[in-house]
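Example record

The entry below shows one chain as it appears in the dataset: sequence first, then structure tokens.
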Amino acid sequence: MIGRCHHCATDSETYYNCANMDCNELFLCCESCLKAHVGCCCHECQEAPRLRPYKLSAKPFRRWYHYADTKEALYQLAGKDVPQREEPL
């Protein structure tokens, strides 16, 4: 066993990144706590505006750019302004 669950202190050997994209903390967690906390490392992260959608699987989160349908949505997820195209002369 590697260590203990970040939330309940039971034996755990699986690391996860926090679902809050602005935190992304790597932490040990058991499956039941991961589900209960929606993939987050703490309560504050559960309330964060930029959360990856939680889905229980061997790898519950993908890279942030997989969660956007358009280029504008990608910039919004990244917290950046969408660049404006310059009109041709």
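Notes for this example: Residues 3-77 form one domain. The two ends are 65 Å apart (CA to CA).
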